[in-house]
Write a structure and sequence with these properties.
Layout (H helix, E strand, L loop, with lengths): L1 H24 L3 E5 L2 E5 L2 H8 L8 E4 L2 E4 L2 H21 L3 H14 L9 H10 L1
Parallel strand pairs: 2-4
Antiparallel strand pairs: 1-2, 3-4
Helix pairs in contact: 1-2, 1-3, 3-5
Length: 128
């Protein structure tokens, strides 16, 4: 069953792997923690800084990869990001569009597109 979940999330994991490899090629690092590849530093930090509200983002999950600005950021965000891994396992390739739709709906209601996204609310509810 776990192999099927990994395959279902694989399209997004491949995107994370490509970004992580760019980070490695530019001085970043990688570690394996709790069934996820975690990339940090280098181009990963640059990528995270350039996404909307990037100055506030310390980590981002894509499938079974977690991108972090640095090792300390990964340590702080790990539990939260693993909730997202379970969401990717549930939603597979549909997770990205569903996440964006959740943010759009929150924004259209005058709410915060990040904090009021249902996927983020679940991650914060489960990890505090």
């Amino acid at each position: 069953m776990k192999a099927a979940l990994v395959l279902w999330a694989a399209p997004w994991s491949c995107v994370g792997l490509l970004l992580g490899l760019a980070g490695l090629a530019t001085g970043g690092g990688v570690q394996w923690r709790r069934s996820a590849l975690e990339f940090h530093g280098g181009a990963v930090r640059g990528f995270l800084n350039r996404v909307p509200n990037g100055e506030f983002i310390v980590a981002m999950t894509l499938g079974h990869t977690i991108l972090g600005k640095n090792v300390a950021a990964l340590d702080v965000a790990r539990d939260h990001e693993h909730v997202h891994i379970r969401q990717y396992e549930r939603w597979g390739p549909l997770f990205g569009p569903a996440y964006l739709l959740g943010s759009l709906c929150a924004w259209l209601r005058g709410r915060d597109p990040y904090r009021d996204n249902p996927f983020e609310r679940q991650a914060y509810d489960e990890t505090g």
